[in-house]
Amino acid sequence: MPERGPMTLFSMTTRAMSAQMVRMNAATSNLANAGSVSTTAEGAYRPIRPVFAVELDRASGLTGVTSSGLVRAETAPTKRYDPSHPLADADGNVFEAPVDETAEMVEIMESARQYQNLVQALQTAKQLMLETLRSQ
Amino acid sequence: MNERLFGIHGAALTLRSERMGVIASNIANAATPGYKARDIDFNAALDARLADQRGDITAGAQAGQVWRTPTMPSMDGNTVELNREQVAFAENAVAYSATLSFVTGKVNTITRALKGE
Q1: How far away is chain B from the Cα of A118, in angstroms, using its nearest Cα?
Q2: B26 to chain A nearest CA, in Å?
Q3: Pair type for strands A78-81 and A93-96
Q4: What is the pLDDT of residues A83-97, one digit of tens each?
Q5: Are strands A93-96 and B65-67 parallel, antiparallel or unpaired?
Q6: Cβ A9–B31 below 8 Å, yes or no?
Q7: Pairwise CA distance, residues B93 & A127, whole Å
Q8: Tell me, what's the ipTM?
Q9: Does residue A113 belong to the interface with chain B, where contact is any CB pair within 8 Å?
Q10: Which residues of chain B fall below pLDDT 70?
Q11: Do the chains contact at A9 and B103, CB–CB below 8 Å?
């Protein structure tokens, strides 16, 4: 969503925080779909990942971040032989979503750390701005 | 006028504020593939700023812009290292506060002189 006017420290941090939130939601969706099965290889869930891109504002010299879209991982679903499964195909196979739970957990932790960092930086910056305003 | 009243502190405060934005940009882009972390070399930038105020020929607004050299480069081309950015941000915030107190002190002195207290 393009915004009018030059980028400020606040709008930049807002965007970066939104981007981190998209990242965290994507990882959470992947985790939620771990272990979900499908009858066909095409129908199986593929993990999603957001793509971050730099957004330079020449007027203020600040560099924000946008998530320019989501990509699906190209990993092939895991084929498992389970004839008793209600979703099994004619050969008795089901296709499991290729989600790496550990990788997703690490992704969430890293995202949380970076989000925290942003909040802290914004707090410090805001405090300094207020000090500057209050000084007579 | 600004230079005569505040000495180097006026320019320094602006520069500190700009550096805060640059470091915040680095923190915001900690997960962007291919992002190259930037910083401002405070000494060089302040020299350029002061020379500019005196009317000398300068290197322009880009003076003092430096790229970070990562301790360990990552595979996605991102050169942001959160620990270094955190330290740089904290250092810059302290220096901003110090400069601000100089400016405030100067303003207080002038105000007192004007009021004749």
Answers
A1: 7
A2: 8
A3: antiparallel
A4: 898 988 888 899 999
A5: unpaired
A6: no
A7: 10
A8: 0.81
A9: yes
A10: 1-3, 57-61
A11: no
